[in-house]
């Protein structure tokens, strides 16, 4: 970074001080700071009226998370905010969305205007991957309601959902198309809406002919296939993520589930964890074959009615855990510096060069880490097909040029307003990127992609190029100075 590289039409001036020694110091410090709740499994227990915490790998019971027990009546869904990492919980007993500190569990309050005047019996929610807004399933009003993802201000009914769903239960965005999928338990199908406008597209594939009582659903992290928990058929059903064709009951789920609800893929193993509300436990299945592994950890002794589950952010992506970093550091791409304020944004591009040995589809997650390592500025994930190029932008909510209105069809990481900078870490979505998939279909390894980017100063046609480091196999960070970072 001492001599910034140029690209056409933009002269570069780096605002960085401290040079490479400061960057090495930052990376060293990041390796060894591990927050108390990093990566643990959180489960909403509607009968215990709290959120219960279990360790990430062993499933050891930690306890009731923070102040959730004293501030929830009927928690049915939970997720972490993609930017602030605070924990959001849909509380049907209070008809609102409640926010808790993601580390301590301290109660922050009812989120914005999500109270009973705008919600009745919320069953699930999701954060929009482009705008960051909060979309909530309202089962009584039979629609999807949209709230500002920062302030919680009520925006309105999302698109045509009020006319096209009868009893919506769950929702998620497709990882490739960005369209919104909604499970409709009354119509027994999954319905697809345009992810930007909310226009109704159609019933997705063969879901109408293959589901009895669809509840939660998720997309597989490597195949992008759709997995649906079907309480009527007491199993998890798998559909092709592109066509919607029924693949079948997933593995041994039909023989080992009574009342499946929420699901999540384990971030390390890609195994499927399913909340079995009747069995009062979390059950684990091989994420590829569907073979039943067993009850996950101590969940069978510490849950009454588990409904949804999520892993807490790895602050944000596990390089804080030195053992994990040492194991996987040769499978990620890093960039030492990004920047955002009202007049500066970060631009990154990545291309799939269609080289021999590359898989036709390669997915990645991009995490913008704050320089003081306190939290994520934001993150996103996307998949590239052979020959594709995707552009990613990083900017604050107050940026007048780069925002959810101007950036519609490309990934956007929107974070808090103000001046921020830090490091980028780009991870493979594939659990084993260095192993060829299928019948010699190639590697799903992001290190085979082409990355470039720049910090752009708006209005002056100046900036400086970003560096991307893709092979950390033999690298190590050494704390050799007392620099506090970039300033």
Label this structure with key terms.
mainly beta, Neuraminidase, 5-stranded mixed sheet, 4-stranded antiparallel sheet, 3 helices, 33 strands, globular, disordered N terminus
Commentary on this structure:
The chain is mainly beta and 487 residues long. The protein folds into 2 domains: 159 residues, no CATH class; 271 residues, TolB, C-terminal domain (Neuraminidase), CATH 2.120.10. 5% of the residues lie in helices and 39% in strands. The protein contains 3 helices and 33 strands. The strands form 8 sheets. It has a 5-stranded mixed β-sheet, with no helix packed on it. Strand 32 and strand 33 form a beta hairpin. The longest helix is centred in the N-terminal third of the chain and has 13 residues. The two termini are 15 Å apart. The N terminus and C terminus are likely disordered.
